[in-house]
Amino acid sequence: MSDENKDLGDKAEDAFDKAKESAKDLGDKAEDAFDNAKDKSEKAYDNAKESAKEFSEDTKESAKEFSDGAKKTANEFTAGAKEAFSGAGGENKKMLAGILAIILGSLGIHKFILGYQKEGIIMLAITLVVGFFTCGIGASAMGLVGVIEGIIYLTKSDEEFYNTYQVGRKPWF
Questions:
Q1: pTM confidence score
Q2: By C-alpha distance, which of 125, 157, 155 is closest to 138?
Q3: What is the rounded CA–CA span in Å between residue 56 and residue 50?
Q4: What do you get for the CA distance between the two ends of the chain, in Å?
């Protein structure tokens, strides 16, 4: 072989060794980059896992707070409803009795609402029996009594109505 070929062989061998070293360095760098990426990926996974755990705990806490608030609201509503319906003897009977007295006063239904059965039966009997024999004059009279009583009921204050007609048991006017 000639010296020139030998020099070219040595140069090729040196270039090959350098390429091997460069490839080894690049492989080492790629391995380091892979390990670095793997570490970052594991850290990101751990962070995501921790964030999900915190989110789950926050969601559970929020749901518990919402549940407690809903229970409190329901209890307040129940208490208010009980209070409103336990006091139904006052204003509700006043409005109902007053409106029924004006609309159906001749039948005495407002008397039955207030607990005056005897007076209600009297008004009903006068309307039906006497009204039949007098061509409606008895019914008209009872209708007038009903309108007057309805107006009286509705113009009284709640307390005055309650004391007069429900506690005091005043049956007429």
A1: 0.47
A2: 125
A3: 10
A4: 144
Is it the case that residue 29 has pLDDT exceeding 60? Answer: yes
Q: How far is CA 14 from CA 1, 20, 47, 125, in A?
A: 18, 10, 48, 132
- Reduced to 3 DSSP states, what percent helix, strand and coil does the chain have, rounded to the nearest 5? 90, 0, 10
pLDDT in tens, 48-84: 889 888 988 988 888 888 888 878 887 887 776 666 5
Distance CA 4, CA 11 (A): 10
- What Cα–Cα distance (Å) separates residue 29 from each residue in 16, 21, 37, 131? 19, 12, 12, 114
Q: How many helices (H) and strands (E) does the chain have?
A: 7, 0
Output the CA angle 6-10-15, nearest 5 degrees: 145
Token pair in block for residue 15: 């270039």
